[in-house]
Design goal:
alpha/beta; Aspartate Aminotransferase, domain 2; Aspartate Aminotransferase, domain 1; 13 strands; 4-stranded antiparallel sheet; 2 domains; 7-stranded mixed sheet
Length: about 400
Amino acid sequence: MPKLYQPEAFAVPDGIYLDGNSLGLMPHAAKQAVERRLNEWATQAVVGWDEWFGLSESLSPQLARLAGARPEEVIATGSITANLHALLATFYRPQGQRRHLLATALDFPTDLYALRSWADREGAELRLIPSRDGHTLHPDDIAAAITDEIAIVLLPTVLYRSGQLLDVARWTAAAHQQGCLIGWDAAHSMGAVPHQFHDDGADFAVWCSYKYLNAGPGAPGGLYVHERHAGVLPGLRGWWGNDKTSQFQMDNEYRRAGDAGAYQLGTPPVLSLAALEGALEVYRGVDPEELRARSLELTDLLLALAEEQLPEMQVITPRPAAERGGHVSLQWQHNRQVSLALRARRIIPDYREPGILRLAPIPFYNNEDDVRGVVQAMREIIDSREYEAAGEGSAVS
C-alpha cells in the first residue's frame, strides 16, 4: 500500500498551503497524464479518439470507490451546476402538493440558483432549512423541513463555510420515509470523507474534482445516480450519453447508455479529463478510511491549537469528528486582513465572507508542522497588529 503522506508526489509551493479544500495542489501524475494526452493529439490527431472515446467511463471505478458506489452508477462529467441541472431535469416531477424543492440557507449559492430556476419554472417554492447560529444546521430543523410537500431534497455533505458534516444515511432515510427523492452535493467531501452513497440509498449526488481530488482548476466534476434509476431517461440528452456501441451510427434515435454515462451531454474535454485521470493515481491503493483518520488527526490538532492560542477567533466548525469534514473554520472580524498577511508570509489559507478563515490540512502534503506553523503565524500577526497593514487586495480563493 502506498504511503499516505507523499508531498513529493505534488508540486508543493514554498511555504504552507492549507487551501486544498478550494483548489488542491497539482499532482505530478496529473501533469504527466495531460502531457501524455497532448502527445497523443500531436502524433495521432483524430486517431487518438480510439483511446479517448471511453476515458470518462474508465475513471468510474476509481471514483466509485471514493463515492461508495458501483462503477456503473458514477461518471466523470460536467460541472456541479451543469450536472445538477441535468439531474433536476430528470428527477424533478412535481405532482399535486408534492412539488416543492428543499435545500438549506447555508448552501453554496450555485446550488440555490439551480434549484430556484426549476422552482420558478414550475411555480413551486424553494424552501430553505434555517440555521440557528448562521453556521450550522440543527437536526430538528432538517427533520421538520422534510415533508410530503417536498419533491426533491438537496443537501450538502459538508457545509462549505463551517465544515459541518451531515449524516447521509440518516437524512436519506428521512427523505425516503416522506416519499421524497434526495440528492447530495459532495463538493467539500469527495476525496476527504469516505462515502457510501449506494448503501445509504442516496438517489443522486454531484461533486467537483478540483478540491480534494486535485484535478486542477475547472476540472470536470462527477455525478452518481443509484442503480434503481438506471432505466430513467435523462431529462437533458446529448450524443455522448448514447449507448457506446451505437453512438457513431449517427441516427436520430437516442439510445440511453445503460449506466451513469447517460448523463453526459457533449464531447468530453479530454485534456481536463486527463488531469483527473492522473490525479486519481494518488488515490490508487489508498484506504479512504485511513485518509479520513489522518485528516481528523490534523484537524483535531488545529482545533486544539486554535482554541488555546487564538481566543479572538470563534471556531465555527463542530468539534465532534462525526460532524465535521476536512477543514476547520475560524471567524473573526479582521480575518480578511489576517488572510492577506498570511499570504505575505507564503502561508495560503482560504477566506470566505463574513470573516471566515478556512484551513484544510491535506494528509497527502500537510503535517503537524504545517498546522503548528499557521497557528503560530496567526498569533504573531495578531500580536504585532501586522494585519492592519495588510492592504486591500483580494483574500478570496
